[in-house]
Amino acid sequence: MLGRMTYLRRVFKITHKKGNKSPQNYEMDYENLQICMKDNCTLKGWFVEADSFNTVIIFHNLNGNKEKYLKRIKYLHNINWNVVIFDLRSHGESDYTGIRIFHKVLEDGMNIINYVFNNIAQKKGKIVLYGFSIGAYIASSCMSMEMVNGIILDSGPAINIKEALFKMAGRVTTNRIDRFLTFQCVKLFYGYRQKDIKKLINNFRHTDKAVLFIHGDRDEFVIWKDTRKIYDICNSKNKIYLLIKGSHHLTNDIYDLEKYERELSDFFNNVV
User: Fold this and answer.
1) What is d(CA 155, CA 61) in angstroms, rounded to the nearest whole number?
2) pLDDT digits (tens, 9 = 90+) for 20-63
3) What is the CATH classification number for the domain harbouring 19?
4) Closest to 198 (Cα-Cα) out of 170, 223, 176, 230
5) Which residues contact 196 (CB under 8 A, 6 or more apart)?
6) Exposure check for the chain: N or C terminus, fewer CB within 10 A?
7) In this structure, is the dihedral angle defined by the CA atoms of residues 195, 37, 92 and 128, taken in order, positive or negative?
8) How many domains does the chain have?
9) Can you give the pTM of this predicted structure?
10) Which domain holds residue 58?
């Protein structure tokens, strides 16, 4: 058990990597933002302003940071949407609070949305959540908030999160004892709670908001059939499922950028 925990600590380490680029590198003006959570964790982010009250909030992937999404920010800015992106806790320039972040990032997400609604959208613009991998998990968990108008989910969320974490840990096995012990370690390290997944699924069953799912058919971490199941139970009349052929986890805009951005443009222009 001790050896297993030591191994998993190494596998599930969060890289608190700070970037060295900003929106200015892509010829965009921006403001630095920061929000202090109730546990005194400070999240740091950017606000890239457009000539609009409409705002996209980006939630990045595990071990990512806001710098990695500068091209996405540029695209959204070009179609006249404000963009807000924060480094998740324990990522980028935000405070490091350890790796037990699963349920904490959900609360952080709600605080970020409330901040945007009150200070940027000024209570009259549309708000779209745009999540990548664990960011899709955050967006899905927050979609029931009244001020959210739509969500875009790239490479997530994983509803069969046990399998996703087993794959990440390199411990795919059918042995019940090994699976149980591995998952208990994962829950201990990440702060994962099954009730959060149940709430997420319930959000889709009752939503009437626009949802765009984007997934790669070769995603080895979150298999596309997982998000297809969510699509099937999603109650929204405005739901779209885009499957990118040949794409892996978080590579959808690389494998077919033209199709990817065409679907995004249609979503923003005609669906939200």
Assistant:
1) 9
2) 899 999 999 999 999 999 999 999 999 999 999 999 999 999 88
3) 3.40.50.1820
4) 230
5) 102, 103, 106, 141
6) N
7) positive
8) 1
9) 0.89
10) 2-271
